[in-house]
Amino acid sequence: QPQLVESGGGLVQAGGSLRLSCTASRVTFSNYAMGWFRQAPGKEREFVAGISMDSWTTEYADFVKGRFKFSRDDAKNTVYLQINNLQPGDQGAYYCEARIGLIARTYDSRRHTDYPYWGQGSQVTVTS
Questions:
Q1: Are the beta carbons of 68 and 48 closer than 8 angstroms?
Q2: DSSP the chain
Q3: What is the pLDDT, as a whole number, of residue 108?
Q4: How do beta strands 18-25 and 122-127 pair?
Q5: Distance CA 103, CA 45 (A)
Q6: Cα–Cα distances in angstroms (integers) from residue 28 to residues 8, 20, 25, 34, 54, in the given order
Q7: For 105, left (φ over 0), alpha (ψ -120 to 50), or beta?
Q8: Which of left, alpha, beta for 108 (phi over 0: left; psi -120 to 50: alpha)?
Q9: Which of 32, 38, 82, 112 has the highest local Cβ count within 10 Å?
Q10: Residue 66: alpha-carbon gap to chain centroid
């Protein structure tokens, strides 16, 4: 079963940037579509960004508004989420999640419940 480990979270001032990383082990990484989700206290986990297993397609939640960039490096079994112009509303635990990719060039689910594997989360805190 895949293991996912996130890193890169921290305390940042509003307007600042972070790069989150997620490294997978025990997996043929290129077979998996990957997603980033986040969860604020008292709220449900929500979709942030996703990438198809072959990097052909990336998708972003509307609130991203061009501030985030999702990329993957299959040689390193790692995905990255670059977050720019952080806002207080971006606070929360960010989770890297994985599911088997079914269709090439397609990212086909924004639902957390469709992802059987996720890491422990990386906390992002934004100060104003």
A1: yes
A2: --EEEEE--EEEETT--EEEEEEEESS-GGGEEEEEEEE-TTS--EEEEEE-TTSS-EEE-GGGTT-EEEEEEGGGTEEEEEE-S--GGG-EEEEEEEEE--STT------GGG--EE-S-EEEEEE-
A3: 84
A4: unpaired
A5: 25
A6: 23, 21, 8, 13, 12
A7: left
A8: alpha
A9: 32
A10: 15
Return the residue matching tokens 């989360």.
Answer: 121
Residues in the chain with pLDDT values less than 50: none
Residue 104 structure tokens: 């090439």
How far is it, in rounded angstroms, from Cα 126 to Cα 110? 25
